[in-house]
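ingest -> fold -> write
write: protein_1
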Amino acid sequence: MRIVYIGCVESSYRGLKTLLDEKKEVVGVITKESSDFNADFVDLAPLAGEYQIPCKYAKNVNDTEIKEFIRECAPDVIYCFGWSQLIREEILDMPPLGVIGLHPAELPHNRGRHPLIWALALGLETTACTFFVMNAGADTGDIISQRKIKIEYTDYAKDLYDKVMDAACSQILEFTKDLENGVCIRQKQDRKAGNSWRKRGEADGTIDWRMSGRAVYNLIRALSHPYIGAQFLYKGNKMRVWKAEEVEAEQYRNIEPGKIIKFNSHNDFYVKTYDNMIHVLECDEFSAEEGEYL
């Protein structure tokens, strides 16, 4: 089964490596040379080069040059994992087995943008890794593989990212075998069911100490590595927080949110939230005093 592979992030790399390790017939790779958009960007060209697989850089996957490259590769199926642009129908219709996409959420629920970040920021306890046959919509195609993933209270973005990728690499081999054998089962999505998450902006990553301690903690772990970090302002400077813990603060119920209760270092300080405290364990370097407000 001839596979053209499209991707430009860490998950794309892991998926491609999984296929190549199992000696699957990847006949072409499409990737990006650089990306300001993806925090976990990976150029797949070096990996393709190791296996002497033809590779094209694309700014827009729907460009004529890329479409011609795909036609020349004559794929039976296209795998598109970790690519933010919607693929137009001309490409979707090229391979007989379709274009397979990945969405790390429990479709038909939680379609849309930033699924791992939203899952953590909202404090969800489960998500899923879902592969589907792409259509003209966003994350609305027939599901061919879905595996549920438990989210622990202590999971940060990298922890959840790794859980999803462990599941994804296993699923890729399973449905690739099913596609090769002509036994892949497609489950239609109910387009009226579920919801679609919106694009996040800079304001969504700003810590408001008036939020509950749990909400602040969830935001910090959602935006931790490999993402951009939750941030707060101190004397006009943006400070990013990478790690923290939620701490009970019954004795400080009369203290306003945003007040520094204790400051040992930028990697060890306590801030009052609406209902308890956040103990910051890893932050950009700065110095403050107990009693100051953030």
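write: protein_2
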Amino acid sequence: MGEIGYDVIIHAGEEQNVKKIHVHSNILCARSQYFCTAFSNEWAEKRDGKFIFRKPNISPQLFNIILRFIYCGNIELKNLQGPDVLKLLIAVDELSIHSLISHIQEFLIEHQTEFLHQNPTEVLETVYQHETFTGLWDFCLENICKEPKILFNSENFSSLKAPLFELLLKRDDLNINEIEIWENLLKWCFAQQNNIQDDPTKWNKEDITIPNMKHKDNLPPPRKPKLDSTLIESKHIPLFSSWIDKKESCYYDSKNNPYEFKLLYRPSRNGVGAKTFHKNCDSKGATIWVAKIKNSTQLIGGYNPLDWDMVSYWKTVADSSYLTLQTQKIFLLQKQDTLMDKIMLFIVIMLMVQLWVIYTVIKIIGVILIVVWENLYPNIGIPEYFTIEDYEVFQIIKK
């Protein structure tokens, strides 16, 4: 980056795209251990007193960006496309410029999300080969686990390397049904064996025989979902979070959801009774409860922004105006309904939420009969009489 006093000639790029760049070894060594090692090696190429450094795998454009950072301490990425930013990240990792690695990863995550989603296979395989790309690795895995279709519906899914695919299949938080995993596994396997026809009825004995391998009778244990629930799924969490913050139903998604939902209590797991309930749920702050209506696909639930213990509750009500028209919510939804947001309504009555706890006192052999007074809340389709099959209480934790 200067013609005066230079002692290094870098040949960046390959074939017709090679460019000579004149730089100074002392500046390069001050910024990168890679260059220190390269120039101290007795096998380093020198000509006329100058080091000759060849990097055909780094384009002149990207090398100039790196050198600008080495000399001036600044870097401009906004004019680069996603593939070039990824190549730049690989280059700075190879050159051991550690201060740039995290910066470029953050830029990719914040400004090149579309590129990462459109090229999941290539990005995963690239990141998998570089131990320093932990931020990008975590981001890609988390997003693919939340939305597996990003990978499974991508054009190059079938070219995914086996170790990576196996790693994904072993994750408990892969948000996809087992039958879909099986279908995608078959699709991937067929792509690896071009000589096998898609139609199983046309397979011969050789197609279905794996030499020197015995079948296994023992099956691995089922995956443990990240959300500990038998009633709701991970896709419901952003919806509930949006309601909690009094936003539109689609305000949050799996990427920007600000809350974690920690299961505190489930009668079928923890035992029935008010004492057990309060042992698990008191003094935990805001909670949301979800219940399954017996002989129905409907779920009923509510949000309680206060502690469950009655002393704290009445103290809060007496000492402040925290109990407002919008702080409590009750909802009804179809367990399999994808348009649940249409039936969410706000409710004023904290009494309704507290009554639900009182009724747990008289719960006998897992069944509660709850009488819902229609004059306490707008009509959202909750049956006048119903029986609770099971319910869950989740602590709402701000991330």
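write: annotation protein_2
The two ends are 46 Å apart (CA to CA).
The chain has three domains: 1-79, 112-195, 236-398.
pipeline exit 0
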